[in-house]
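Course assignment 3, question 2. Fill in each field.
Student: A.L.
Task: Predict the tertiary structure for the chain below.
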Amino acid sequence: MWSKTITGRQLILDVYDYDAILIPIGINNAIGHGLMYDVCLNFPPVKDGEKTTPYGDRRKYGNVCVVNDEGISFCMCYMVKPMNRKQEGYDFVDYDSLEKCLTHVNDMFKGRNVATPILGYDKLEGNGDKEKILKLIYGTIKDVESLTIYDVEQQDTKLEMFKRIAEVRKRLKDKVITADQYIKERSRIEWERRYGIYKPYDERYRYIPRKGAYLEKEKK
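Answer field:
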């Protein structure tokens, strides 16, 4: 096995480069943050597959759920305890479950190219001990063809979208772009917010800037 680490780039941008993608997740079917949110947005079968697992079932800890879509095996690793945002600095990773998940991964993806974030390290996905997690990953996953670890702070995609919207609004207000240009840019942002970055953009879609309006399709 050979391994490498990538920094400064989100894993969602490179998913087609790998056979399997590992995703940290809890047992409550939560998909609201980080890599899990990005994957479900761009690959809806993953969301549908995870939702078939029993909500809050503690038997899921240490097990994995694999959903195949577009030639990629998305492997959800149940190793994150229920997170309470008020417990700042608290470690929500169940390390015994993480090790069991990694053992399943090693057995399931022998000879394949695997990519993963530092499972549970990011504050959006467990806020765990980085060195402890890496030690478990390297000590357990040994039989895959390659292992690529993305050492990067996970993005809150919804927050990033709101930032992009604020920026394009400011450019319109400052008269850097025209109203037509604003509509075009805003339409693309709303498309990605709804469908993700991989579904080809439909030029017929337009953002309608009025109260309560949403992305609408032009009439043929």
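Instructor remarks: Helices lie at 34-42, 44-51, 95-108, 130-140, 157-173, 179-195. The chain has two domains: 2-151, 157-217.
Grade: pending
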